[in-house]
Every structure is written in C-alpha cells, then in structure tokens.
Amino acid sequence: MRRSGHGRRMHCQEALIAPRAAAATPSAAAPSPSPSPSARPSQTPKPTADAFAPAQTRLANLCNAIAAASGGHGIKGREANELNGLLAQAQRALDSHDAVGARKTADQLFQAINNSIRNDRIDKKQAQVLVDAEALQDAVARL
Fold first, then answer.
1. Is residue 85 situated within a structural domain?
2. Beta partners for residue 10, in sequence order
3. What would the 3-class secondary structure string for the chain be?
C-alpha cells in the first residue's frame, strides 16, 4: 500500500492504474493538414503491439498475488512496504518503457519474494507469488 496525495492508502491496483491513466490523458490535438487534391490516399499504418504489455499483465498478476499474501500470517510491515515500493518502481519502469530498469526491478522483486518464502513470511500455500515473480522476470527479459 502507498499513500496518495490525499493521505489515504492506495490499494496495489490503484497504484498500478493511476500512473497509466495519467499518462494516457491526451494533450491538445494538433490540427491535421487537409489532403491536397493531388495526394494519393495513404494506407493506414498497422498498429504496433506494445512489447511492454505482457510485462504489464505479469506485474498486475504479481501485485494481486502479493496482496493476497499480505496480512495475517503473510507479508506485513517492512517487507510489505519494500515489495509495494518495488511494484511501484517496476510500474514506473514499464510505463516509461525502461526495459533495463524493469529487468533490474523484476530481479529485485524475485529476490525479495524468494527471501520471504525462505524466512517463512510467505506461507508455502501462498508461494504462487514466486511463480508470478518468475513470470514477470521472463516477460521483461524479452524486452
């Protein structure tokens, strides 16, 4: 969880969605030039697939798994804060298409989660977060 500017705690999904929503806000549209009568109609360019989309999906899955493993007998306190900070850092890297930063943060997340499992801070039944962290590592390795 992290705090928003208004003092309330943000849920993991809010932290992931808020930066993308702000980035998706269109700026003032520039007027397009009128086609000249002699111009040939151009072909519509094919949209390119976002290479970062699979990593964004994996990060959202990891966020959900960490949220499920938090509290009770799971992740809490300093560890929860560390993981949520790394999730936010990974989200910023993906939003800015920083493949190197995303890989570095995915590796840090994987290590932190692996340590939590080894120290019995994540229940063995909740170890799905490690699988989700590996999937994120795999997704950013392809960037």
1. yes
2. 2
3. CEECCCCCEECHHHHHHHHHHHHCCCCCCCCCCCCCCCCCCCCCCCCCCCCCHHHHHHHHHHHHHHHHHECCCCECHHHHHHHHHHHHHHHHHHHCCCHHHHHHHHHHHHHHHHHHHHCCCCCHHHCHHHHHHHHHHHHHHCC
137: containing domain:
50-143
- In degrees and rounded to multiples of 5, residue 40 shows phi and psi of -80, 145
Q: Using one digit for the tens of pLDDT, what is the confidence trace for 101-136? A: 999 999 999 899 888 888 877 777 677 777 888 888
Residue 98 lies in a domain: yes
Q: For the chain, what is the domain count?
A: 1
